[in-house]
Design goal:
Distance between the termini: 21 Å
Strand content: 15-25%
Pfam family, one: Gly_transf_sug
Protein name: Lactosylceramide 4-alpha-galactosyltransferase
Number of helices: 5
Strand order of the largest sheet: 3-2-1-4
Number of domains: 1
Helix content: 25-40%
InterPro entries: GlycoTrfase_DXD_sugar-bd_CS, Nucleotide-diphossugar_trans, Put_A1-4-GlycosylTfrase_plant
């Protein structure tokens, strides 16, 4: 069955109905699937309470606090992260928190495979047939058709 991953870096109390609907949609199309939410705030008693109705229905869902340093071990991103931590690299225009969120999701996929979904993504059909796919959220107009945002 398909392994799914989400990240949640906001406080657990903001994990609301929209996010629960997204999680439920995973299991409607993949009742035997497994969903791991990489989140320090959801890996808590409050997060357990939020996820309990899904667990009570037999769904395989859990939250785990990501350890970015361990997650990046043996990945191409390890050097970048070490340089960022030691102030040897300019963080650029993108906020570090956004870079870390993107890095966490890419490292999870790199190490474990599966499907990454944003917490507002509604699954409407099975992903079982997809192999090595990537979704483009925004594509430039014109001849280049370059992807500018990837999911």
């Amino acid at each position: 069955e398909v392994r799914f991953f989400m990240t949640w870096f906001s406080p657990a109390e903001f994990f609301g109905k929209r996010e629960l609907l997204a999680v439920e949609s995973v299991f409607k199309s993949h009742p035997q699937g497994c969903l791991m939410i990489a989140s320090g705030s959801m890996d808590s008693p409050q997060g357990d309470t939020i996820l309990k109705p899904l667990l009570d229905r037999g769904y395989k869902v859990f939250a785990a606090t990501p350890d970015i340093t361990s997650l990046l071990e043996n990945t191409p991103a390890k050097t970048w992260f070490q340089e960022m931590k030691s102030c040897k690299r300019d963080p650029g225009r993108i906020p570090l928190s956004q870079n870390l969120s993107n890095l966490a999701r890419l490292a999870i996929l790199y190490k474990y495979g599966g499907v990454y979904l944003d917490t507002d993504y509604i699954v409407t059909r099975s992903f079982k047939g997809l192999k090595n796919s990537i979704g483009a959220q925004t594509v430039e107009e014109g001849d280049s058709r370059n992807w500018t945002r990837l999911n």
